[in-house]
Design brief:
Structural class: alpha+beta
Strand content: 25-35%
Number of strands: 21
Helix content: 10-25%
CATH architecture of one domain: 2-Layer Sandwich
Largest sheet: 6 strands, mixed
Strand order of the largest sheet: 12-13-14-11-5-15
CATH class of one domain: Alpha Beta
Distance between the termini: 43 Å
């Protein structure tokens, strides 16, 4: 069954609705009534593998037709992102923290309500089963993960339950995911929640009421700006979405600083911010040490967990065979995902040293091409020059860290402050 967004009609309505334009000029379409012309139809992109019948299992909204404006919303205001590619596991029972602590790579036995943590779920061989974002709420724990990993994760975690007071449930049909990324993301939640203040620390979690609905909000910054991840009752998604969109009337000050955005804008921002993603930049064939996310998701001071011996052995050996790195092409050529990377020093069969996993043109770097690539560790030292295929040619590229952009502006923490700062 396809994983469809309940917001498809909202996407079309937003795209086709004429925008107020206080600066309309006579030569612009719609200027006679002070309105911008409606945008093109929203565009979608397939996400993840096809099903057994060769059909798309999940589609993401790619863009509403104005990628530049959508990206600007993330960097200057707030982008509202529909997330049909995310799933939810609900875990309840008094033993849930102790059980998960024995299973997952993070230290979790003292996890308190209102705290969120990213972590890995590994196989016995130390390979990734899933990249999980745990949200502890005091009476239950929610797990945010890729929709394509939910069935296997529920199955494999449940197999380790014996007498523990733990219940693991796939709640993806009940709960839906939205996200708000941007400098005024917290002000959006404050305004949508009735104008009260809202200020959530990194990796914090709480519940708020939006449109009369209890919404779980957890903070995980993935674009170089504040990132607030919302989990809402599936049958109330439209009402919550409408309330979020409506905040632009106050926070945007007529400049459309709070707007729905598509995957393309979020993808540009997260690559700039150095945030790789499971099923895109790394996946089930990888070890934690290869992902570039090791120290955000793995504790080396806790007790045993599944796959721990492999992780500890890799740590003692010093380096994996391959590792995810950043690449800066020296010419104005953009390598795409899957592009081969070669050593400038070696020849023959060993010349290929890796492959590009993600790439974009970076607005924050003057539209310069940037990329992530999984490279053999011996060729992955920062400053190393490699060759990468790009746009039918080959260009030099310099190996660097994953992060290309660091935010500089503070986050406004209330609707009033956001209005003043914009």
């Amino acid at each position: 069954m396809p994983h469809e967004s309940p917001l498809r009609k909202r996407h079309e309505a937003y795209s086709h609705h004429p925008r107020p334009d206080p600066n309309a000029a006579a030569h612009r379409p719609g200027a006679a009534v002070g309105m911008r012309a409606a945008a093109p139809d929203p565009q979608y992109v397939a996400y993840g593998p096809l099903n057994d019948l060769g059909r798309v299992r999940c589609e993401l909204l790619a863009t509403f037709g104005d990628l530049e404006a959508e990206y600007a919303a993330i960097r200057k205001g707030a982008g509202l992102f529909d997330c049909p590619h995310r799933a939810t596991i609900r875990i309840t029972g008094d033993d849930r923290r102790e059980f998960l602590n024995r299973m997952l790579t993070q230290e979790l036995k003292d996890l308190q309500g209102g705290v969120a943590k990213p972590t890995f779920w590994l196989s016995r061989q130390g390979r990734l089963v899933a990249d999980l974002f745990l949200i502890e709420l005091g009476d239950r724990l929610l797990v945010d993960l890729d929709i394509h990993q939910v069935d296997h994760t529920v199955k494999t975690l449940t197999e380790f339950l014996f007498t523990e007071d733990v219940e693991i449930t796939d709640a993806s049909s009940e709960l839906y995911h939205l996200a708000v990324h941007g400098k005024v993301a917290q002000a959006v939640i404050a305004e949508a929640g009735g104008g009260t203040s809202f200020d959530l620390d990194a990796l914090g979690a709480t519940t708020v009421r939006i449109a009369g609905v209890e919404v779980v909000v957890a903070r995980l910054d993935q674009t170089g700006e504040v990132g607030l991840h919302l989990i809402v009752p599936h049958d109330r998604t439209e009402a919550v979405w409408d309330a979020l969109v409506a905040t632009d009337e106050k926070l945007g000050q007529g400049k459309r600083r709070v707007r729905p955005v598509g995957w393309h804008a979020v993808n540009v921002a997260r690559i700039e911010a150095g945030v790789p993603l499971f099923n895109i930049d790394f996946g089930p064939t990888n070890l934690p040490h290869e992902t570039g996310q090791l120290h955000d998701r793995v504790s080396f001071t806790k007790g045993c967990y599944l796959g721990q011996e492999i992780v500890a052995r890799m740590e003692s050996l010093g380096s994996p065979k391959q590792i995810l790195v950043g690449l800066k092409p020296s010419r104005d050529l953009l390598p795409v995902g899957g592009a081969e990377v070669f050593s400038k020093e070696q020849q023959g069969m060993d010349r290929q040293i890796g492959m590009v996993t993600s790439s974009t043109l970076s607005p924050m770097l003057g539209a310069a091409p940037i990329a992530f690539a999984m490279l053999k560790t011996k060729s992955a030292d920062p400053g190393t020059t490699v060759l990468v295929n790009a746009e039918g040619e080959q260009t030099d590229a310099v190996v660097c860290g994953l992060r290309f952009y660091k935010p500089v502006a503070p986050q406004a923490s209330s609707a009033r402050e956001a209005g003043e700062s914009t």
